[in-house]
Design goal:
With about 200 residues, this protein is α/β, with parallel strands linked by helices. Helices cover about 40% and strands about 20% of the residues. A hairpin with a 4-residue loop joins strand 6 and strand 7.
């Protein structure tokens, strides 16, 4: 996974911009605009969320790829955004229990090797009543669209470790989150989720 992301880093922003225009709309602003206080972002990538956080948040970001992380740090400097951006694995966070509210993850659960473990780790480091804010591409509920996703998925997984048919709500329920808000768009391909640790 790290090798794939390191290799993708130089052209990631250019390629994801096309996907964002077609699918995500104002999704990053929706997720980051709800962030307050001590925020953890999982699967930070190249830091594309950094411009969308409100002033005053204390941000910690975790990214598996050193090449992606270097770009995120450069973006933070350009934006004059103070942030603690670290190399790390969302599946095994080297962070104390109950230390963040909220946690943000955008387009991360589709590539993390074990998303269930990552969500369980998010649950562990969230404060009670803390929120997990997600923007993900997911398995469509439309049969024809889902059939196309399944046909493409062997290629996307091999090339970019990108799983097209994951459903984050399954991991959230298993980890003990309560779902506050779910919104689907773009033929069911995109999902916005706000979940809370009870």
């Amino acid at each position: 996974m790290r090798r794939l992301q390191d290799r993708a880093a130089p052209h990631y922003d250019r390629e994801i911009a096309l996907v964002e225009r077609a699918l995500l709309g104002d999704g990053r602003a929706w997720v980051c605009g709800q962030a307050r206080g001590h925020v953890l972002e999982l699967a930070l990538g190249t830091g594309r969320n950094l411009p969308y956080y409100p002033a005053g948040v204390t941000l910690t970001g975790i990214e598996l790829s050193g090449e992606m992380l270097a770009q995120a740090r450069a973006r933070a400097r350009e934006l004059a955004r103070q942030a603690d951006l670290r190399l790390g694995d969302a599946q095994a966070l080297e962070l104390p229990d109950r230390s963040f509210d909220p946690i943000v993850c955008t387009l991360g659960l589709c590539t993390i090797s074990d998303p269930g473990r990552a969500v369980a780790e998010a649950h562990r480091v969230l404060r009670p009543c803390g929120r997990l804010l997600l923007l993900e591409h997911v398995r469509s509920q439309h049969l024809a669209v889902r059939a196309v996703q399944r046909a493409l998925e062997p290629v996307t997984v091999r090339v970019a470790a990108d799983h097209l048919t994951r459903e984050p709500l399954e991991y959230l329920h298993a980890a003990g989150f309560a779902i506050e808000h779910v919104e689907r768009s773009r033929l069911g391909l995109v999902q916005r989720v706000r979940a809370v640790r009870p």
